[in-house]
Write a structure and sequence with these properties.
Blueprint lengths: L6 H25 L4 E4 L17 H7 L5 E5 L1 E3 L9 H4 L10 E6 L21 E4 L16 E4 L6 E3 L2 E3 L20 E4 L4 E3 L2 E3 L12 E3 L6 E3 L2 E3 L2 E2 L5 E3 L2 E4 L2 E3 L2 E2 L5 E3 L3 E4 L2 E3 L2 E2 L7 E2 L3 E3 L4 E3 L2 E3 L2 E2 L1 E2 L3 E4 L2 E3 L2 E3 L2 E2 L14 E4 L2 E3 L2 E3 L2 E2 L10 E4 L1
Parallel strand pairs: 1-2, 2-4, 3-5, 4-7, 5-8, 6-9, 7-10, 8-11, 9-12, 10-13, 11-14, 12-16, 13-17, 14-18, 15-19, 16-20, 17-21, 18-22, 19-23, 20-25, 21-26, 22-27, 23-28, 24-29, 25-30, 26-31, 27-32, 28-33, 30-34, 31-35, 32-36, 33-37, 34-38
Length: 383
């Protein structure tokens, strides 16, 4: 037994070390516990509760760490407030943060996320608005270039329950590189946020701009669920311009592109259970745009979608698809028409497609016309 006596102090040491390790781990766990911060339009506090809410949304986002939530009460929030805005004012915007979940639509008394009122639809958008209307509402040059501008985000960044409105990607003499003027509502550069229950409304731009509702570059892959795009307007992709994107249960309606489609996805789009209605595409700078509401690239898959009453001055009143798959989709009352830039004949009242499979789809009341109003085939395919 004497030979084992040296183990006793070692065991005591190990026991103390283990206890210390456990206590340390618990302490670390507590220090990284989820924190909820609170924002109200009239808040004057630190954001630690509804009673001490802050009015500075971006400051609260910046103060949050991975795993935290920011609860934002009903009201309107602006990245800046100004009249006769300068360049410094117009280029200000909100930005999301990795690991931080932003929730809007609260009354301002809730103690659980489940108590938040159901909102965000065409009939009832969220009561929490992120606005680019900095000063005078009817002054185009008094609006933020981007309401939200994201850089280097992964899919741990979440935006849920907001109206995004009033962005304007018109340079307006503010001295900003025109090539950066993309995404009046939201611009994503190397960013793949999760966006749910959001409403992109009345974001605009001038000829040559892209994605007035939402713009994402080649290194981004945003994922949108239960979102609506309404009355956005610009040259290319009035609602959305993105290299790749996921859309689920979204509504895209009444968006107008002066040059091309309302939604442009240059590479891969995964689109499920979405409705595209009353969108229109212009003729494009060289004449003959394709896809009045949606233009998608190779590998795209569209499932259970409705295309109704969309139009284009060119080919494919509803959809232009290249090496895509379209399953269980309905095309009703879409129209392509000629009318400018030397267009003589247009095709595809519903669809203009190349190497694309249509599986169990229906086509009703779609029309394509020439200047003489001659009815053309419902869709045109090319090899």
């Amino acid at each position: 037994m004497k030979q084992l006596s040296f183990l006793r102090p070692l065991c005591r040491q190990l026991s103390l070390s283990t206890l210390a390790a456990v206590l340390c781990a618990l302490s670390i766990g507590r220090s990284h516990a989820q924190t909820i911060r609170y924002v109200k339009p009239d808040g004057t506090g630190t954001g630690s509760s509804w009673a001490t809410a802050s009015a500075n949304l971006q400051a609260i986002i910046n103060a949050s760490s991975a795993g935290d939530q920011v609860w934002v009460a009903a009201g309107t929030y602006k990245p800046s407030s100004c009249t006769n805005c300068s360049a410094a004012d117009r280029i200000m915007s909100f930005s999301m943060k990795n690991g931080v979940a932003l929730y809007g639509g609260f009354v301002g008394t809730e103690s659980a996320l489940s108590e938040r009122p159901a909102s965000v639809s065409l009939a009832q958008p969220s009561s929490t608005t992120l606005s680019g209307y900095l000063g005078t509402t009817n002054n185009r040059n008094d609006r933020s270039v981007h309401v939200i501008a994201n850089n280097d985000l992964n899919n741990t960044a979440l935006l849920d329950g907001f109206v995004i409105t009033g962005g304007n990607i018109d340079a307006g003499g503010i001295g900003v590189d025109y090539n950066t003027l993309q995404g009046a509502g939201m611009r994503n550069l190397h960013s793949s946020p999760i966006i749910r229950n959001c409403f992109f409304l009345d974001n605009i731009g001038t000829f040559g701009g892209r994605g007035s509702g939402l713009y994402s570059d080649a290194t981004s892959f945003p994922q949108l669920t239960n979102c609506t795009f309404e009355r956005n307007a610009v040259s290319e992709g009035a609602a959305i311009y993105s290299d790749s994107i996921s859309l689920r249960n979204c509504t895209i309606s009444n968006n107008f592109s002066t040059g091309y489609s309302a939604v442009i996805v240059r590479k891969t789009a995964i689109i499920n259970n979405c409705t595209f209605s009353s969108n229109s595409g212009g003729s494009g700078p060289n004449g003959g745009a394709t896809g009045g509401t949606l233009n998608v690239g190779a590998g795209s898959v569209l499932t259970n979608c409705l295309f109704v009453l969309n139009s284009v001055i060119g080919d494919g009143g509803a959809l232009a698809a290249y090496e895509a798959t379209v399953i269980n989709c309905t095309f009703r009352g879409n129209r392509s028409s000629s009318g400018g830039a030397g267009i003589q004949n247009t095709y595809g009242g519903a669809v203009y497609a190349s190497n694309t499979s249509f599986i169990n789809c229906s086509f009703t009341g779609n029309q394509s016309t020439t200047r003489g109003n001659i009815v053309r085939p419902v869709f045109k395919t090319t090899n």
